[in-house]
């Protein structure tokens, strides 16, 4: 019940981590089945229809349900600590964000149990995603599941924007914020502007499928290209929503384990902001082959190539941070250092794809598959592994085993490059994306075998990581506040794991790398900005759980309203929208209760705070 009702940002961060890890395993199993099917020519591990479902669900799960929650896990666990805040701005809304994401992801994956799985690709292009080619409820699971999950992401982004703007500790100016907090701030701004586009697209898709709307149905005056524009106006900023937090993590980890201030801090801040801004100006580089014309293609080519400039600034700054530093090769730092050349490779192929004439050749080939996996897995996932190893002791009070961590890195890193490096050549040799089998004698056999072996090596790396988690959590919670002994930012100035109220006294920030600055001045802890006194805390609540559960039930009710049930009672309940109504009643009833019940929260008293600090009354 404690975990169902919590509004503590640290516990919500752990919930995001558990849920993201769960969906990560599901997406990974889907990927292994895809690679098993393609390991050799004309294999029949799965049918063509199942392969399309695996491909669709793998992409959708990994982007929306695995990567995003792990990003939000680290943002929840760390950002309030880095800015010296006691919580996020809206703890109740933070809980709503998690539970709506979770129930949306659950609804999407229930499609496997029902046996009506989305199979139109993770981008859901029309007419494939329309009622003519995706009958049954398959793409309804996609549309409604992602709408519910998207609510959680959107309110989470708004929450972090308000938190970072309003709740920084005294002296924590914007240009003293750690890079991870900066990346979370700009990511939240991207979420605010990008996710409404996805919401509009998914609602119009639902109208097309459930109520015979004609937004994307060409026969009735709609156009599938409109969906492409709507999807990619969200979809390309989404790439930066995913990668910017990884950039922030790498900045923190490399700085800490080089025992040096981050090189070119202000240029890193402006580069991050510029990447976020340009991210909204490049969506049609996914659409060079749709016939937009030479002017549009040229503009989007130029804008795409421009993004390489601020990204290059970041790469050089990370290298210069390490230059002359006292580098420690911890597991977290290995992932961070491995990230740099891997992401550069993904960026280089991105610039190749940005040239419209070249893209006509690369488009819909395995070259593109290799490119975006180098960016998302070689970039984002390596960054997330680095962040999880780095902040695990702060979240759980015990560090991950270093030997197992390094083994995870080498197994996953080598497996990754085996899997995706050869796919560039498969694409150049003519292998198209989304094919479930291929003939012998095309010259693709060996490279596909190598790619599949690499994928299973990544699976082994993931298993080692899970073993590491189980092992570490069985150990006593003995992590020090400054676990790595070279902590530079505020989260390392408090015990591990952090107490419920984070800071007994709000810290006074006197410069960038605030805790490092205090340590260099000979202080063992931060200078307080206030005397010790009672701390106000928000009360736990079950209402966010029920609000989200209501949306889950309502989603089912709307999806199956036109379904033909064998059971007359079921048919009557769904066809008269009773189930949908009950779900909405639960959601709006919970909102009503939240509005009329005035919960003043509670206070943690001074003697309890002193007891936590080991000071006798």
TrEMBL record:
Entries under Pfam families matching the protein: COX1
One Gene Ontology cellular component annotation held by this UniProt entry: plasma membrane
Keywords, in A-Z order: Cell membrane, Copper, Electron transport, Heme, Iron, Membrane, Metal-binding, Respiratory chain, Translocase, Transmembrane, Transmembrane helix, Transport
Membrane topology: Multi-pass membrane protein
UniProt KW Transferase keyword: no
GO molecular function, one term: heme binding
EC id: 7.1.1.9
Origin: domain of life: Bacteria
Pathway: Energy metabolism; oxidative phosphorylation
InterPro entries the record matches: Cyt_c_oxase-like_su1_dom (IPR023616), Cyt_c_oxase-like_su1_sf (IPR036927), Cyt_C_Oxase_1 (IPR000883), Cyt_c_Oxase_su1_BS (IPR023615), Cyt_c_oxidase_su1_bac (IPR014241)
Primary enzyme class: translocase
Main location: membrane
GO-annotated biological processes: electron transport coupled proton transport; oxidative phosphorylation; respiratory electron transport chain
Catalytic reactions of this protein: 4 Fe(II)-[cytochrome c] + O2 + 8 H(+)(in) = 4 Fe(III)-[cytochrome c] + 2 H2O + 4 H(+)(out)
Regions crossing the membrane: 12-34, 54-79, 91-114, 141-167, 179-203, 230-250, 262-283, 295-320, 332-356, 368-392, 404-426, 446-471, 542-561, 573-593
UniProt domain Cytochrome oxidase subunit I profile: residue ranges: 1-510
UniProt cross-references to PANTHER family, sorted A to Z: CYTOCHROME C OXIDASE SUBUNIT 1
Similarity annotation: Belongs to the heme-copper respiratory oxidase family.
Cited function: Cytochrome c oxidase is the component of the respiratory chain that catalyzes the reduction of oxygen to water. Subunits 1-3 form the functional core of the enzyme complex. CO I is the catalytic subunit of the enzyme. Electrons originating in cytochrome c are transferred via the copper A center of subunit 2 and heme A of subunit 1 to the bimetallic center formed by heme A3 and copper B.
UniProt-recorded name of the protein: Cytochrome c oxidase subunit 1
